Amino acid sequence: MISMELRSRIPSGPIQSKWDTHRFEMKLVNPANKRKFTVIVVGTGLAGGSAAATLSELGYNVRCFSFHDSPRRAHSIAAQGGINAAKNYQNDGDSIYRLFYDTVKGGDFRAREANVYRLAQISVNIIDQCVAQGVPFAREYGGLLANRSFGGAQVSRTFYARGQTGQQLLLGCYQALEKEIARGGVAMFTHTEMLDVVLVDGKARGIITRDLTTGAIEAHAADAVVLATGGYGNAFFLSTNAKNCNATAIWRAHKRGAAFANPCFTQIHPTCIPVSGDYQSKLTLMSESLRNDGRVWVPKKAGDKRKPNEIPEAERDYYLERKYPSFGNLSPRDISSRAAKEVCDEGRGVGETGRGVYLDFADAIRRLGEDRIRERYGNLFEMYERITDENPYRVPMRIYPAVHYTMGGLWVDYNLMSTIPGLHVLGEANFSDHGANRLGASALMQGLADGYFIIPYTIGDYLANAKLEKVSADQPEFVAAKAGVESMTKRLLGIDGKRTVDAFHRELGALLWEDCGMARNAAGLQRALARIPEIREEFWRNVNVPGSDAELNQALEKAGRVADFLEFAELMCTDALHRDESCGGHFREEHQTPDGEALRDDTRFAYAAAWEYCGAGNAPKLLKEPLVFENVPLSQRSYK
Amino acid sequence: MRFTLRIWRQKSAGTPGTLVQYDAPDVSPDMSFLEMLDVVNERLMERGEEPVAFAHDCREGICGTCSLMINGVAHGPVRGAATCQVHMRSFTDGQTIDIEPWRAQAFPIIKDLIVDRAALDRIVQAGGFISAPTGSAPDANSIPIPKQDVDDAMDAAACIGCGACVAACPNASASLFTAAKVSHLGLLPQGQPERYRRVRRMVEQMDLEGFGGCTLFGECQEACPKLISIDTIARMNRDYFKATMAAREESKAAAGSA
Known about the structure:
The complex is a heterodimer. By secondary structure, chain A is an alpha+beta fold. Among the domains of chain A are: about 140 residues, Flavocytochrome C3, Chain A, domain 1; about 140 residues, Fumarate reductase/succinate dehydrogenase flavoprotein-like, C-terminal domain (Methane Monooxygenase Hydroxylase, Chain G, domain 1). Helix content of chain A is about 35%, strand content about 15%. Chain A has a five-stranded parallel beta sheet with strand order 5-2-1-9-17. Chain A has a five-stranded antiparallel beta sheet with strand order 11-15-14-12-13. In chain A, strands 16-10-18-19 form a four-stranded antiparallel beta sheet. The longest helix of chain A is centred in the C-terminal third of the chain and has 25 residues. By secondary structure, chain B is of the alpha+beta class. Chain B folds into two domains: about 110 residues, Beta-grasp domain (Ubiquitin-like (UB roll)), CATH 3.10.20.30; about 140 residues, Orthogonal Bundle (Fumarate Reductase Iron-sulfur Protein, Chain B, domain 2). Helix content of chain B is about 35%, strand content about 10%. In chain B, the strands form two sheets. In chain B, strands 2-1-5-3-4 form a five-stranded mixed beta sheet. In chain B, β3 and β4 form a beta hairpin. Chain B is elongated. At the A-B interface, α3, α5, α6, α11 and α12 of A face α1, α2 and α3 of B.
């Protein structure tokens, strides 16, 4: 096997002009020729939906796939808080450079500067585009757009549509996509799951899918493939992701040769509703915006079981305000999450399980009145009460961190192309912009930047240069890939063991949460690395997948996804073990400052770790993309 | 808590279905309705039986995937909530609960509790959008929009496309779904150029899909997990009337000049 190399293709020149220069230097596809190219887009969230719609508007032939019954149901829909853009409408000192700077720093210096700068540049166009589509962003009485400060930012650059920003942005791009479907530019395949990528002459030329209604396995040929299939947070079983989110598309692409970068970078969101019982199927995020007015605390004394209202002020520890006086309750996600874990580990956690901290609005209600709080957070308070049966206007909310977002993903170059030529990866599925920690309201921005404004240019350059032969879905490469998928399906159905798919998934999730969650150490990771292959071995011997492959079979869908998580988890722990430093969401207990902050090791680890698949049973090979910081000087994050 | 469930089981679109009884013991009041079904399914699979197929995804009331008729009520007993946001504490211990799929001619059953709602996407394809190709937008603050207009548009835009309005309607009409989109886009200045063409085409598509007509029962707004008001239907009807009158005038004028 000839080992791959990582060519980041970062344009030369000053950071401010890299994207402009690159756009000029890229080859264009003649308008009349665009319709001769077919592009497959997998996933219809913000990244995939915006890419599919825009590529079709440009004249490409698009074939778009979603496992949902409608493209509108992709998980981007659940994003609550908002989307950042360097509009500086509030005149508070924001700029493209500041958004760039904040994102690189917030990512704890593990992202590629050039990509982040481009993201900040494009952010302003995204807001324009979304407003033109009819996205009802919040407005002031004068009719102009409203902004709020979000997730630790010291400027107000976040645009929002109540607590449903993701929904409204996704509906904007879904509607653009449906418009293109009606025009005939996009052939839409709903309720269809991608199960493999097909390579011809080393280039991505198609995919294998399963029709989730009929069970039919089909091959689809194209000139290029775009994956926008989201992150891998559901490896943990419990996360804020939707139940069907999975890593199958990116994992199977990885096994075909796409390097997987920084899989240990996962984001734990500090404000989620705590677990209530063994039956728990997912965790619900409470928007981070709540931290603008809520104060986080726990009792000073361990084991204090009094009701929150009975604990006097002097016996409360507002630990975020105490430890980080300038950022306080708005400290970044990773710092806030870890601080919550620490106080719970000390026995000061609240609620029945002791895995929770208070988020208290009493002061804000006294200061602003209940009506103002209702206006700001009414829907979130309602959601909380519905789930917990407690009224947060009267008693403090209980929150606890939960897996929320994954910064790692398939490695991509500046053009968003993976190490497989022709295979492009957008949104959460790639690794590119958030480094080791994503800032609030930046995921929506990245998804739409990739889909609306980057891939439409860069894919043209690829297609114009690639000299592609015609391929057909009947040729041997497709037939072989299809046979591979069919045989895996048959194998899963034939095991006829004793344990359900969910039983394995829960076991894996609990292991990852314990040993590769908010805080990691070498011993725990080694333990997980020893245990994962055992769970996987038992899965393939003892899982029970009822039903047949020729019908809608949800257990079979899940089984394939969990089989992939069981392989992926090993890579995640391998990466976490190898990264012998702490950075952002990756906190290695061995590496911390005397105050318990993440301690980076820039001499040894200022690189993106991209792992190459070397076959089942073989250790993956580590490739390093050095990260050079020419514009934002490397520094220790400080939120004191 | 303990429940007796009577769940609609149907192998496929072409085969007849029936209600099958299951026992659900040891249910915690803090479980969501779907978590209760998860537990029932785990037990079925442990016994080697096929689990009940039901549609679900985000489990926080925003994706619009879940779609259950619970005791004859779309999304069950909690007002302004999708099925996934209903918790077992909303039921009485020992109760019998009937669980069925959405029933409508335009929503054929795929399996058990899962129906095909592609008709709703086709209504959007017919005109539920603003044509603003990527790159063509002016600065976002170039058109001020009164806060009230945006708030009203947002109320309508909150629709999650679940189809509960259709399931709840005695006529299986998709008027609330269609009207929500017509209102969201029609209330905004950006939506004006295509306003009348949009409403005409969407309403025509709704009829083509086999949804029934609206006779203003108002069951839809009761079932809507986002509490979208039937005021949107009045708005749609007004716009539709104007659009068809304008079309008639145009064709008359065309006939006159010919």
